[in-house]
Amino acid sequence: MQISIVRLSALATCGAISLAADGLDSIQRVENGLRSPIAIKGQPVATMTIADRLKFYHVPGVSVAFINGGKVEWARGYGLTAADGGKPVTSQTLFQAASISKHVAAMVALHLVDAGKLALDEDVNRKLQSWKVPENEFTKTEKVTLRRLLNHSAGMTVHGFPGYEVGAPVPTLVEVLDGKKPANTAPIRVDTVPGTLWRYSGGGYTVMQQLVLDVGGKPFPKLAREFVLDPLGMAHSTYEQPLPSSWEGDAATAHDAQGRPIKGQYHTYPEMAAAGLWTTPSELARVVIELQTGGHVLKPATQQEMLTKVLGDYGLGLSLGEKEGQKSFSHGGANAGFQCMMFGYLSGGRGAVVMTNGDRGGALASEILRSIAAEYGWPDYKQQEKTVAAVSEDTLRTYAGVYQFPNGPKVTLKVEKGKLWVTLPQGDPVELLPESAASFFSVNDGVPPLRFSRKDDNSVELAAGGSTASRMPR
User: Does 12 have pLDDT greater than 50?
Assistant: First the structure.
């Protein structure tokens, strides 16, 4: 995929909202001000362009909506809907929202709470009809409730879903819940006492989807449209899976980590509540604004429940944070070939949504959000400053080799021109900078801090992300 800066600049005008000159200047600074998570002490901040980072991450396209003062101040698309001859991405291009589907689906369930048809703290088996949560030793005293499902604290298994290739058999929702073919994930069950542990579970949201179906009496996409999408004016969004043919012309194609289109353009997700929303950043921005202001979907007290921590710095469908006294909510998403991020503040009507059509788009989204944060003075998404230590090339060479993480990836480290480089699976080589003789970091997203240690036999181990890898024999 090759996109020139000139061509990208032309594509970026697609879907732009009319702005004064100072607003356009801000957009250009955002487009040219992408930055890594780490700044090097004593050096000027290195900035990058969206055009360059699309190429670096092998992501064909990205769409951005910026929210300020309780409205979408600007929205733009960059790059292409498909690497092999797609159309320019615009603010109307559809992307899979992936796990950002969850908090929108949570609003569907909470609408039924407001209607008196569901209760947040009731055993969901009282209302489930087509399927029941299997009782076991973990549910003897504590039960699976809607609050716990939405908070990821119901003790449910199955983190996420890979989806189904076009042409492959698609299971029913009950088959997904029970892990029966053609489902490609394990049965969704309770394996810890509900209410005692926060653990992310797309499986729990699939249980919620079945609950909403049984109580609402209509297909989930129709309930979502009736309760949330239409009230918020999200006419260009749908939970229908697979995507209706009449919408296909507006849809971006999913791409793998090397920027290659995935088979069949994108996957189908019967797990709609967990991963099935098709939408645009501008329409997801309507959800952000609704969470900030309210009035269209939920009663004020119910909306406040969404934004109140239960376990794990998480409310009902949303991650909750606070920096410099400013409270925020957010959620990321990663489906096959799509990655995206939504972020908003509870005050000031500020936020942004970034959606990409590539498996490495999450890092790009973070860089764009850092650029937005720098331009508009957000307390979040600030760079962390680090100092680079002096380490000899001889020491660096003692770390070179291939390391195998238990039940995880192989990573390759090599030394070139006096620098240490790491290559992750399906990625390009990334430079590692020394914080000390044994600790290293990268200025790029997606590469965790690495630390080397030597055992008594002088063999080298590599620690990253709480896991330790041994160097493989050469």
Answer: no
Res 410: pLDDT:
85
Residues 265, 187 within the same domain: yes
Give the mean model confidence (pLDDT) for residues 366-389. Answer: 95
Cα 463 to Cα 1, 405, 432: the distances in Å are 34, 9, 14
What pLDDT sits at residue 13? Answer: 41
0.85 cut: is pTM over it?
A: yes
- Asked whether the beta carbons of 37 and 443 are under 8 A apart, the reply is yes
Domain co-membership, 424 together with 283 = no
Three-state secondary structure call for residue 330: strand
Together in a domain, 199 and 115: yes
Residues 361, 164: Cα–Cα separation, whole Å: 21
Peptide bond before 379: cis, by omega within 30 degrees of 0?
no
Regarding whether 326 and 217 lie in a shared domain, the answer is yes
Angle made by CA atoms 81, 84, 85, in degrees to the nearest 5:
65
Helix axes 101-114, 202-216, angle to 10 degrees: 40
Of 363, 277, 374, 391, residue with least CA distance to 62 = 363
Cβ–Cβ under 8 Å, residues 441 and 448: no
Based on the fold, state whether residues 441 and 368 are members of the same structural domain: no
Domain that holds residue 465: 393-471
- Cα–Cα distance measured from residue 52 to residue 55, given in angstroms and rounded to the nearest whole number: 5
- Name the residue type at position 192: T
In this predicted structure, the answer to whether residue 437 has a pLDDT above a threshold of 80 is yes
Q: Which of 267, 144, 154, 158 is nearest to 202 (CA)?
A: 158
**Residues 229 and 149 placed together within one structural domain of the fold:** yes
Express each pLDDT in 120-167 by its tens digit.
Answer: 999 999 999 999 999 999 999 999 999 999 999 999 999 999 999 988
